Protein 1
Amino acid sequence: MSDFREDGALAVDWVASYLERVGELPVLSQVEPGQIRAALPESPPDEPEPFSAVLADLDSVLMPGLTHWQSPRFFAYFATTASEPGVLAELVIAGLNQVGILWRTSPALQELEELTVDWLRQLVGLPDGFTGHIEDTASTGVLAAVIAARTRLPDRRVLVCSEYAHSVGEKAARLLGLELRKVPTDDEFRMRPDLLGADDACAVVATIGTTGMTSVDPVPEIADRCAENATWLHVDAAYAGSAAICPELRHHFAGWERADSIGVNPHKWLGVPMDCSVLWTSREEEFRRAFSLVPEFLRSPDDAVNLSELSIPLGRRFRALKLWAVLRCYGRAGLQELIRDHLRLAALFESWVRDEPGWEVSAARHFSLVCFRRQGSDEDNERLLESVNASGEMFLSHTRLDDRYVLRLAIGNFRTTEDDVRLAWDVLRREAAAL
Amino acid sequence: MSDFREDGALAVDWVASYLERVGELPVLSQVEPGQIRAALPESPPDEPEPFSAVLADLDSVLMPGLTHWQSPRFFAYFATTASEPGVLAELVIAGLNQVGILWRTSPALQELEELTVDWLRQLVGLPDGFTGHIEDTASTGVLAAVIAARTRLPDRRVLVCSEYAHSVGEKAARLLGLELRKVPTDDEFRMRPDLLGADDACAVVATIGTTGMTSVDPVPEIADRCAENATWLHVDAAYAGSAAICPELRHHFAGWERADSIGVNPHKWLGVPMDCSVLWTSREEEFRRAFSLVPEFLRSPDDAVNLSELSIPLGRRFRALKLWAVLRCYGRAGLQELIRDHLRLAALFESWVRDEPGWEVSAARHFSLVCFRRQGSDEDNERLLESVNASGEMFLSHTRLDDRYVLRLAIGNFRTTEDDVRLAWDVLRREAAAL
């Protein structure tokens, strides 16, 4: 085992050095498609190589092909962080290599998963009628929720979401052969419950913090409509759900306690490395009815309930360990402080945009995402985005709102400081002036 | 970053110590349901705790609730290994926290994934018409393949597999609202192609190395029937596929190159930590047609193809890095040596059972799994299994073959030696004598 200790020291040092310098690396990879693969051998080696050779190639071959999600100036999509306790927990997870299939294949995995998703439930202020488990991503979580809904209401063939909902709803509908109905939104990009028409729907996906502009669907009114029609309500709070840890932000989450299922991704805004998406439900029995299938070779003498009876994959990683590590090493206070700071930085950036002639804020800001644009054409804004991203100094993404091209600055990396946000604004104005 | 280096050293030391002593720990956890959770705080902490506190609780609270998949005497289900380069690669994966959504969100992730699944394709001797990607588990891989098949043949509502196929087929059928037809098997538990009836099927799942007893469906004949009816053929070689790295075992895989899709799990028999399930297809376009959906907020100026257009989750981990590390640090020769040794050990155990009065081998052995039983009733064998597992000295599982209860000894952990297998046999005879 001396090799493992030696190689482990090298690996820890490599990661530590990476995290020390990640702020200086070009955020968006600047390689051409195919460039990384072309620099690697076409065939696997016949003979063993040392682990140090793998680390060496990370630097010399792969590094230019990385887009640095850990950079403090990654502002695209939703910014994420693999926090230090989360990263080290992944090492332990891999070392233990627990495979959660049945309870008995790892009682600690299953019970820690049940516990940590309950801890998170308490942190975000959901009532104790919800139980939960961890999925890889919200795509899978939404798909699983819709499968549970369809098992309950097999004759309804419609899935409903807003026109600004994430594409996961559309994907779930397509994969399951359901019809998707996109409900129009009001002038703040919120689903209009008066146009919901839930009576033929097996499920409605409402979003708190849509991907495009973090709008908040009117969940109380949607829940009323769903209740009238016995329609399943899934609340997708993949990004914004973490913000409910701060009591002063809970008003955005009014009514979500009436959902049949809720998704929140700790791998987005809570410092947990990819992947960790929590799915709660107040109808665990319906999930079991949809997913439970225990073949003979998996029958066991205990009568414990198995997490694999609630989701698509049969085996699961010990993801709970990283969620546990992060919740403990930050604590409620630490996570609140980070989220509040991200909102402060977003408000600051928003104020700069609002006060600058020739720029405009494009959507109401609820959390840590600012949607904005330069006055002018869509093409001007698209060119601006591309030149900013090509600089390597930061990485932004875009969306379309009311059919206009809009830039998105998403704050969510734990290392982002006011200096980083100020630099972003400087680069944006510099590149805009140069166009 | 000094904390990360310090905590990292603690974590490496913890994992190294764990792997040094894992052979001495009770293999199957002996706790009662609820025991682990009851030993942990019901609510999350308000204030931060050090990472060392997490490691301390791993020892003092979680350890009894672990079933030790890394133990050399884990012989249940299919034995797996998180090899040392694979474990350390997970540390790097988490440190980089790449999120593969679009090519540009991590060109290195996507291109290394395409490369490593191609390396594995070459290692197992598949032709170059197959491209691939990594799924979490074979459950998801089979589901994805059936979704692709159903997209191609939307009017066919039947999924076919053998009566001894893994439950993943049944689960996929249920989740997608398809009818499952289980085809009877011959006296070696192989699907009978003459009873296939593929003309109304959208897909047939054939298995090379079934979970129960590693039987091998007659893929060439099944492929003929599928070709006649334009039915999608998925070959599930989740466990056994790794054995195709050894040319002398390739005969078991005759015909799999005619499949539309094939699944092999490097997290089973190739030393890659959970989770890493490779899904190849000769019909990538059909996968794209089923899964591709790029919303506005994900459009990018490059015209690269994105791996997220081929599978259920939108975002993926940098799993390719651990597959790459393992393929390089073992090399073709190293992996062949391990697999051959596992087959040697399985043959040895099989010979002991065969030569011992009162015991019998219950199914032909093709790979590293031995199915056997003590002559006597099912209840006798079930009691034997429970007493062996309760001893903590080893962990076996069971299945039913021809409606008889049968014990399974699966060899697949890289640390398993002849001494471990001999101990297993000694414990089995000791416990049988004591009953």
Protein 2
Amino acid sequence: MKDKIITISREFGSGGRTVGRKVAEKLGIPCYDKEIVEKVSIESGFVKEYVEEKGEYLSASGKMSTLFTLHHLYSNMSNEDIIWSAQVKVIKDLAAKGPCVIVGRCADYILRERDDVVKVFIYSDEDSRAERIVRLYGEKTETPEKRLKDKDKKRSSYYQHYTDMEWGNPRNYDLCLNSGAIGIDKCIDIICTLEE
Amino acid sequence: MKDKIITISREFGSGGRTVGRKVAEKLGIPCYDKEIVEKVSIESGFVKEYVEEKGEYLSASGKMSTLFTLHHLYSNMSNEDIIWSAQVKVIKDLAAKGPCVIVGRCADYILRERDDVVKVFIYSDEDSRAERIVRLYGEKTETPEKRLKDKDKKRSSYYQHYTDMEWGNPRNYDLCLNSGAIGIDKCIDIICTLEE
């Protein structure tokens, strides 16, 4: 696996980000997650918080932002489209540097033409995810179930919009691991030992 | 894994049956596949060939058989329902005997109330599956693509009809492995080493 690029798509609260980081640590390769947001921010000109929100989530209605920016003077692209284009460039550039783990952001789709990519989907049952997000991110006004549903819906819509494929359909991945059932450590082991 | 029951759902041509048999061999536990057909045949009174067809496949239209049998004198159950009931009993009885591998036949759903079941889904891309079915089962008048589509449709309809769940949705399984991408041997290794 040391010569591969590993993309990790994940349901919110499934621990996919942790899986990605620990796989990278064990394999001694970089893990790109928040770094992508920073690079896309520089590339697109939008602030990081905006990139983070718009680079993976589409509002449930599927509507794009109508916020007017200078970009609109030069093209018909929405802000989301500009961020998407920057994200495609950043992810392709990072992959070109060599083996790595990339968490989220449709990297499986963006790198689909490479033959050295292992595509993983991490998911879990709702109870485990609800427990995890409350433990990691604290209580909010909305119930954890509502937070999960909203995030899933927005990630799924975003993926569908830009890839024209179904998010979480196993046929788009090489392996799909239920972290709630088999445990996060086992997910890490399975991914690391794939090419042993 | 030696103390677990492993259920393997699989797409036609994905090699899931081979994976199941070899996992059982490696773990030294029984693999139930064709044996289920024999037992259901005895339990239900239908011949094996009929059980094999009706115990996993629903016609694409979703219609049940209207063949009149003696069973219909005593109940309003269709032949498929009678076979399903026998299959539920046979699979629960086999699971009660101890650790084993069970291939297909909605065993993941039938055993859903047990907490010692590992649920696996094996799938693959269409090209790998088409190549495999021609190699194993020979050429037929229908194209391999048509044969795959028909079998998938019937298995999916059957699963949906009796479980009210979506066949191949990763959330119904503990892990989903793309045998075309990672190879059949790696699928076997991953399942065998899950509990090491």
